[in-house]
DNA sequence: GTCAATCTGTGATAGAATGCACAAACGATT
DNA sequence: AATCGTTTGTGCATTCTATCACAGATTGAC
């Protein structure tokens, strides 16, 4: 076990965690790799093999205790604690992110939001006062921000990224439609809905 | 060429298209698989092989004509035309999607938005009047909507999906944190920022 | 015209991910 | 205690993916 687990496996763990949280909420005490797989559209063998990278969590003949496996996955993914998040950019997207109710319950707390527009700086968004971009590095450090969500235009994204990294952030959720250049120790995940749309339109031919 | 191209290859084409659009805007007339790869963090060989599934678009010794390759990729992905989109759910997320300026220029036009809340129905969002959920199937058909973006709570997502499919939609961008069950001919792409965040937190273990 | 430098497209190869299938283990039932 | 149905964890085979490396084509310099 635990000998540099493939990134593609890590990417599936949050899906397992989400399904388990759902089962737990529904009061299901025990599940199986088959049930999980059916719910996620993933083969049961794959789920068992993925989990085996980290240990043995089930019982033969029975399956998995839902709360126990959820706890273990949360521990593995390091989401058995809270994380501090900054939103960069207070346009439509930034405001939606700052106001999104789905982050808090899953342990991600938006503590601060930045923008460069003088008309927006100082206004309130979801209980947060918009801070000026110039104060970003100090603010990020002072508040011990660990994750940044970048919601600025493509043209500004790289320079904003450089400052976010200077502020000590090591994980970036990037909504800008460009590839960000970051040091090796910084992780980036990209979200661009248009990319997903174009992926689907390929199959809509005819 | 064209003998059932792997889906993973299709998924990269929008990235190539995005990079080419950027180069074209910057007035770069010619590029190479090396330059594209450097910009995207993908090996040049991979780009050449991906493109080779669809034909020969470059010239040896020279590279690729940016406008020509962009056109060809747009044609392959079927984004050399416009698409009609519906947003389902007029909460924070639905409103952000309906107001997002990044869809139109890339050929995706939000024509209608639905919600079930009587207080929201009839209000205006980004120039659109919110329609009631009951009228969904007829409205989707009447407007020939091709793509739906689902931005409703998890509990409502599956029943909404069933109606969207009944309305003739064959592609769904799903923001709800559950796996949607759809007929084979319907395509689904999921977006859940929390999944991406949890993917990164794994690596933030110190 | 010749040569060096460059770049594409692709066959071959190495590598990674997935699915299969079974031994071992467990609980329920008789 | 014996049996049956179920489920895990895993070695193995298969399939899928990515990379290597080179022939052939093109350009530009001299």
Search tags:
homodimer, 206 residues, alpha/beta, Rossmann fold, two-stranded antiparallel ribbon, globular, DNA-binding
Summarize the structure.
The structure is a homodimer of 206-residue chains. The first copy, chain A, has 206 residues and is of the alpha/beta class. Chain A has helices at 7-25, 33-40, 44-52, 66-77, 92-99, 136-142, 154-166, 193-201; strands at residues 30-31, 64-65, 83-88, 108-115, 124-125, 128-132, 147-150, 171-174, 187-190.
Describe this structure in words.
Two copies of one chain form a homodimer. By secondary structure, chain A is an alpha/beta fold. Chain A folds into two domains: 7-77, Winged helix-like DNA-binding domain superfamily/Winged helix DNA-binding domain (Arc Repressor Mutant, subunit A, Orthogonal Bundle); 83-195, NAD(P)-binding Rossmann-like Domain (Rossmann fold, 3-Layer(aba) Sandwich), CATH 3.40.50. Chain A has helices at residues 7-25, 33-40, 44-52, 66-77, 92-99, 136-142, 154-166, 193-201, and strands at 30-31, 64-65, 83-88, 108-115, 124-125, 128-132, 147-150, 171-174, 187-190. Chain A is globular and about 65 Å long. At the A-B interface, helix 1, helix 5 and helix 8 of A face helix 1, helix 5 and helix 8 of B. The structure holds a DNA duplex (30 and 30 nucleotides).
């Amino acid at each position: 076990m635990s000998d540099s687990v493939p990134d593609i496996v890590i990417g599936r763990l949050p899906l397992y965690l989400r399904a388990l949280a759902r089962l737990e909420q529904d009061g299901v005490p025990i599940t199986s790799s088959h049930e999980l797989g059916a719910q996620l559209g993933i083969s049961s063998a794959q789920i068992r093999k993925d989990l085996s990278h980290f240990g043995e969590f089930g019982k033969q003949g029975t399956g998995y205790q839902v709360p126990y496996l959820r706890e273990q996955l949360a521990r593995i993914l390091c989401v058995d604690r809270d994380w501090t998040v900054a939103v960069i950019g207070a346009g439509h997207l930034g405001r939606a992110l700052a106001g999104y109710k789905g982050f808090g319950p899953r342990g991600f707390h938006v503590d601060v939001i930045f923008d460069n527009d003088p008309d927006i700086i100082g206004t309130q968004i979801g209980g947060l006062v918009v801070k000026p971009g110039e104060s970003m590095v100090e603010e990020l450090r002072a508040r011990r921000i660990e994750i940044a969500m970048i919601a600025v235009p493509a043209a500004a994204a790289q320079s904003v990224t450089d400052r976010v990294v200077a502020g000590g952030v090591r994980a970036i959720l990037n909504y800008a439609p460009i590839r960000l250049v970051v040091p090796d120790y910084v992780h980036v995940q990209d979200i661009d809905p248009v990319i997903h749309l174009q992926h689907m339109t390929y199959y809509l031919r005819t």
